[in-house]
Design goal:
The complex is a heterodimer of chains A (354) and B (254). With 354 residues, chain A is an alpha/beta fold. Chain A folds into two domains: 169 residues, Thiamin diphosphate (ThDP)-binding fold, Pyr/PP domains (Rossmann fold, 3-Layer(aba) Sandwich); 112 residues, Rossmann fold (3-Layer(aba) Sandwich). Chain A is built from 13 helices and 13 strands. A seven-stranded mixed β-sheet of chain A has the order 2-1-3-4-6-5-11, with helices on both faces. A five-stranded mixed β-sheet of chain A has the order 8-10-9-12-13, with helices on both faces. Chain A is globular. Chain B has a single domain, classed as Rossmann fold (3-Layer(aba) Sandwich), CATH 3.40.50.970. In chain B, the strands form two sheets. In chain B, strands 2-1-3-4-8-7-9 form a seven-stranded mixed β-sheet, with helices on both faces. A two-stranded antiparallel ribbon of chain B has the order 5-6. In chain B, strand 5 and strand 6 form a beta hairpin. The longest helix of chain B is centred in the last third of the chain and has 20 residues. Classes of the chains: A alpha/beta (354), B alpha/beta (254).
Amino acid sequence: MKGNEAIAHAAVRYGLDGYFGYPITPQSEILETLTELRPWETTGMVVLQAESEVAAINMVYGGAGAGKKVMTSSSSPGVSLKQEGISYIAGAELPCLIVNVMRGGPGLGTIQPSQADYFQTTKGGGHGDYRLIALAPSSVQEMVDFVGLGLDLAFKYNNPAIILADGVIGQMMEKVVLPKQQTRRTEEEIRKHSPWAVTGKRGDRKRNVITSLELDPERMEQNNIRFQAKYRTIEENEVRYEELYCEDAEYIAVAFGSSARICLKAVEIAREQGIKLGLLRPITLWPFPTKIIKAYAEKVKGFLSVELNAGQMVEDIRLSVNGRTAVEHYGRMGGIVFSPEEIVEALKEKLIKE
Amino acid sequence: MITAEEIIKPENLVYTKPKLMNDNHMHYCPGCSHGVVHKLVAEVVEEMGMEEKTIGVSPVGCAVFAYNYIDIDWLEAAHGRAPAVATAVKRLSPDKMVFTYQGDGDLAAIGTAETIHACNRGENIVIIFINNAIYGMTGGQMAPTTLEGMKTSTCPFGRDVALNGYPLKISNMIAQLDGACYVTRQSVQTSPAIKKAKKALRQAFENSMAGKGTSLVEFVSTCSSGWKMTPVQSNKWMEENMFPFYPLGDLKNE
């Protein structure tokens, strides 16, 4: 099935309580598939087409505040609209899942694939000091798996998680294994496992208030200190990446999502030509795989950050490498996807410099 | 003659503050309508026996801290988004009694889309709308409902319709929507008005639990601080100027 359809099936299978979305290319199949699956008749999952991306993310805020497993999905311009709500969700420490099937920008841009929302996703996007747990799938199977993983991490840390896919992964068809149907949480389970949720105040506890507001600056700073401590824990525990042909590599391409798939072919071509190229694929874009990149920085002649943008992740690689070795970027923009041959040429031109 | 000692005996009690209202000091200004409306909400929820099932959604504006005063579970929404937040809470927990509490800027300016679409979908929620024709929290700026000629800090010479457009009768708009079952305009400046308003609130909450669609209760209200009047002057000014433009009574009751 298509990557977008896989997200929809996974949402039902992982026992979500609600999906709230607004149509936008190239991810409308998620809402379409969900309305076709009619999960409200089987698992009781709510599926609602909102009047805007703004409303959809605020529905997610409401649902998450009620302790429910909820998600939304959109593509780049729509995700920009959601940023206010995402900041509130992070500020109120609510778990939820957001999916961005990226397209080329800026502005209305194009409906073709892009990875130009890396900065928006990993550096904040909305206002304030907050982080999203960002997962970058590079296959349709990972579109399925990361719905489950994203929700697990979101609920583990009471923090929003985002799947950062792109038009290639959303539209691509592959075979997938869907998880077994999980049951939705009952109200009593929510009361037990998410005691902060608004479930109706009973005599056994104080009222619950979901808010990101704290006018007292001393207490607001304490909130921020708490958030930052949580982010450090996530950075310590939740980094995920994949290494391919890195052991003997002289050069390492760093790429995520669809770019990583194309890079894998580039690695084959390079090795046929006698160039020892490896591939490091960050699976979590935040937390970023800083330590492993730092470790390889002592061994390799250079890193090539391969992204469908003007050079965004390359900044995090440079921060990890901290001047120890060369770091270059190769990218195409605006909906154009590079070929493996172009990547190998860029490697030769920018790093090998024969 | 009844003595003071006898008057304070529980059996002689004729009035008490609802149990759901806690003892936190209200941040509202003297003469403000919010306090009375909060009390009415607390009374209705209590009388319906829905204390453990009621979830409020507070706005951005003066009522942002409504959650400090009524002892139920609350969500504090982003500016204008309360109806979207309430939509999800109610759809995901249909056994709960869910309401939003919003001012004119929140509901009729920045949140117009969320308000209209929640009502149009017929969400089984109650929308409580405080219309005092001014932005109170930010210091008295022009609201969508500010009357023509009325002075605020962003229309210091009076609202000029050529420049700022017309005061918005949003409840009349919402009354046209098929999803809204009950739209009414009330006030709380006199005892009879308070009684009527409470009855309207009760009906709105009952509608939401009966699954009849969206109920919107507008309260034409005062803002002594924003209007730069005493509470008494404010009530008089409201009666003389607000009521003719925003007449009280049911706009729709199906």
